[in-house]
Amino acid sequence: MSYIIICVVFLIGTISIPNILGQSDEINNNVIMKHHQKDIISPNIIDKYFNNNTLVHKKDFVNNITLHYVIGGRGDPILLLHGWPETWYEWRNIIPSLIANNYTVIALDMRGLGDSEKPQTGYDKKTVAEDIYQLVKKLGYSKIYLVAHDWGGPVAYSYAAAHPEDIQKMIIIDVPLPGFGVEEAAKFSPNGIWHLSFHAVRDLPEKLIEGKEDLYLNWFYDHYSYNQSAITSEAREEYIQQYSKPGAMRAGFEYYRAIFEDAEQNKEYAKQKLDMPILTIGGEAGVGKLTTTSFQKVANNVTGITLPNTGHFIAEERPNYLIKQILEFFK
Asked: Which of 42, 144, 253, 316 is the most buried (most CB within 10 A)?
């Protein structure tokens, strides 16, 4: 919701305002600016991994749908869950370093999005998590590490709550949970998240946006990033092409239409708090500390970071910083 954590990575909760909940865990601005200067990744670096078959595209039939994913590397598995309006491609700058550090990477297109099948139903996060759980098992893995952004975040929570013994650690990026912060963020106000309610309306958004997907999606890339150039023209073209496919916008909106069902599921799950280590990362120009405060309500071991001068799309705005956090947290 491009504000997937309501990893990865859905705009379910992006708010372009200063961190409204404080600055206590933020990093020094001078350090941040140095990181920004270093967060330049050569374009198409991921291509060589496909060209030498280190990374491959695959599809598998699980839970009665076909999921598309890319997989590569050797070692402990890291599952990457994207958000809206993005696809597995949001992780293109992250994947090479994870492979280089001896991890197996699985980056998929969630139900209805990217090159995955687009069924009419099943967009509550419990069902989406079950899709992914069955894929992970089919691939032969048990315990995994999880990184999730935007709508990927609530999906990751459902996965972890249903199968806590299977999650080593997880990182949730810039998203609160339905039932634990999303509804409050969507309230009518100058800084409210207007698109949550709009996307939840049945049928209307699809009809209004059809043929104007580029105009609509570029608004989110521009307004929910701190550095608009971080979402490159190549990436925008890829995302817009994917979300212009028949049924793709409807599928994306179904993630929002399931929010209240998700909230009920999450409240039931939250009766037993998660114990695995969780790192939450929010952009100051994204949801700030809301990811941290949301997950602290459902988990016992949460470490939170808020990044100044950073928006919602952290994997693309701050790739090198995120790579460092992943490698340090998962070691």
From this structure: 316
Of 109, 157, 312, 321, the catalytic one is 312
For this structure, is 199 an active site residue? no
Catalytic position from the list 150, 157, 255, 262: 150
d(CA 99, CA 151): 24
Tell me, what DSSP letter sits at residue 274?
A: B
Confidence of residue 32 (pLDDT cuts 50, 70, 90): very low
Q: Which of 3, 123, 256, 321 is catalytic?
A: 256
Let me know if 223 is a catalytic residue: no
pLDDT at 208 over 80: yes
Instruction: Decide if 221 is catalytic.
Output: no
Encoded tokens for 17 = 């305002």
CA 25 from centre of chain: 22
Q: Is the pTM of this model over 0.70?
A: yes
Q: Which residues of 87-117 are buried (b: 16+ CB within 10 A; e: fewer)?
A: bbbbbbbbbbbbbeeebbbbbbbbbbbbbbb
Helices (H), the chain: 29-38, 47-51, 95-100, 125-138, 152-162, 182-185, 195-200, 204-209, 213-223, 233-243, 248-257, 259-269, 290-296, 314-317, 319-330
Query: Are the C-beta atoms of residues 1 and 10 closer than 8 Å to each other?
Result: yes
Q: Which two tokens stand for residue 235?
A: 């990436």
Closest C-alpha to 148, from 174, 128, 123, 173 = 173
CA distance 61 to 43: 32
